[in-house]
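From the methods appendix. Each design record in this collection lists the discretized structure first, followed by the designed amino acid sequence. Records were kept in a plain field format so they could be parsed without special tools. The example shown here is representative of the layout used throughout.

RECORD:
C-ALPHA CELLS (315 positions):
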C-alpha cells in the first residue's frame, strides 16, 4: 500500500440509502468533487452508466492539494436504477450532459434540483426542456483536477465555485451553495449566473484551444509568443458579449484570462487532457457556442473560428 494511503475498510463500509448528493459523471473533476464532499461528511453516491456494471470499482484513490493520499469509500449506483436522488450534481463533459441525463427522464422526481457543472454554454436550456418540472441550476468552477488512472484523482488547484438559477424553480435552492462550500472551501450563489458563465467562457476560449493545439501547460501562454492571439481572441469575445448585453472590454477579459494562466501555470487545460487521451473535447460548447452567438449578431470572429476548425480537425 502506498505511503500515506489510508484504508477505510471499503468492503464493510456502510453507506446511507439516500445520500445527500448524487453525482452523474466521475471524470477528473467529478472524482475530486465526490472525494471532497465525502471528506466533508456529506454522503455521496456516484451514478455510472450501465456499461460500467462489469468494471472493477475500487475505492477512490484521492490526492489532496497538500499531497496527502487516501482511499475513500464511495457508494456507486447506475443510471438505470438510480435509487432515491435528493439532488443531482452533473459533472460530465458538456457534450455528454444531455445523453447522460436522458435515461433519468421519468425516473427523477419532480422538484429534485439538477446542478450543472461543465465548461461552455448552451446546454442548460436543453436540460430545462428535458426536465420541465425540476429546478435547473448552472454552475461555474475554477477548481483544477486530474485523473491519473482508474478512480485515481488529484486535486490540482483550489478555485471558486458559483451556482445560480436557470429557471424560476431553482431560485428556492440557494442553500445548496452553502453545502458545497463546506466541502470546497468556497461556493456562492449568484442570481445573475449568466454573467459568470460568459466570463468563464471567455477564459476558456482564450486558454483551452491554444493549450490543446500546441500541447502546452497553461503557464506557457505567458510571454510574447501568444500575446497577439490572446489579445485578438479577447477582442472578438468582448464584441460578442457586448452584443449579448454583457458589459465588458477586451482588456478586462485578457486580464482575467492571464490571471488564470498564472494561477494555474503548472496545470494542463481540460481540452489539452481530452485531446491527449483521444476523448471528445468541449469545443462545441465553448468556442462553438461563441461562433453561434457571433453569427446571430453578424459579428466576425476569425481567430476563434480558426481555432475551432483546428481543434475539430485534430480531434
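DESIGN:
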Amino acid at each position: 500500500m502506498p505511503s500515506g494511503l489510508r484504508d477505510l475498510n471499503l468492503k464493510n463500509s456502510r453507506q446511507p440509502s439516500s445520500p445527500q448528493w448524487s453525482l452523474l459523471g466521475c471524470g477528473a473533476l467529478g472524482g475530486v468533487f465526490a472525494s471532497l464532499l465525502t471528506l466533508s461528511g456529506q454522503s455521496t453516491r456516484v451514478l455510472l452508466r450501465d456499461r460500467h456494471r462489469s468494471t472493477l470499482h475500487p475505492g477512490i484513490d484521492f490526492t489532496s492539494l497538500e499531497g496527502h493520499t487516501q482511499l475513500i469509500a464511495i457508494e456507486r449506483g447506475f443510471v438505470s436504477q438510480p435509487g432515491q436522488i435528493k439532488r443531482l450534481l452533473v459533472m460530465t463533459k458538456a457534450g455528454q450532459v444531455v445523453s447522460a441525463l436522458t435515461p433519468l427522464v421519468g425516473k427523477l422526481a419532480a422538484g429534485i434540483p439538477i446542478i450543472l457543472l461543465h465548461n461552455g454554454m448552451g446546454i442548460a436550456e436543453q436540460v430545462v426542456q428535458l426536465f420541465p418540472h425540476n429546478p435547473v441550476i448552472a454552475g461555474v468552477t475554477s477548481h483544477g483536477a486530474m485523473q491519473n488512472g482508474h478512480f485515481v484523482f488529484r486535486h490540482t488547484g483550489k478555485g471558486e465555485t458559483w451556482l445560480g438559477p436557470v429557471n424560476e424553480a431553482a431560485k428556492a435552492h440557494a442553500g445548496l451553495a452553502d453545502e458545497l462550500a463546506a466541502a470546497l472551501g468556497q461556493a456562492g450563489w449568484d442570481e445573475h449566473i449568466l454573467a459568470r458563465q460568459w466570463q468563464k467562457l471567455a477564459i476558456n476560449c482564450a486558454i483551452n484551444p491554444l493549450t490543446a493545439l500546441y500541447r502546452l501547460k497553461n503557464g506557457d501562454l505567458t510571454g510574447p509568443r501568444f500575446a497577439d492571439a490572446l489579445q485578438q481572441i479577447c477582442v472578438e469575445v468582448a464584441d460578442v458579449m457586448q452584443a449579448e448585453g454583457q458589459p465588458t472590454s477586451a482588456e478586462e477579459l485578457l486580464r482575467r484570462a492571464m490571471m488564470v494562466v498564472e494561477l494555474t501555470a503548472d496545470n494542463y487545460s481540460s481540452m489539452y487532457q481530452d485531446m491527449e487521451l483521444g476523448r471528445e473535447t468541449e469545443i462545441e460548447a465553448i468556442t462553438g457556442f461563441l461562433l453561434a452567438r457571433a453569427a446571430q449578431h453578424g459579428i466576425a470572429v476569425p481567430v476563434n473560428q480558426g481555432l475551432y476548425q483546428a481543434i475539430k480537425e485534430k480531434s
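APPENDIX NOTE: The chain is about 40% helix and 15% strand.
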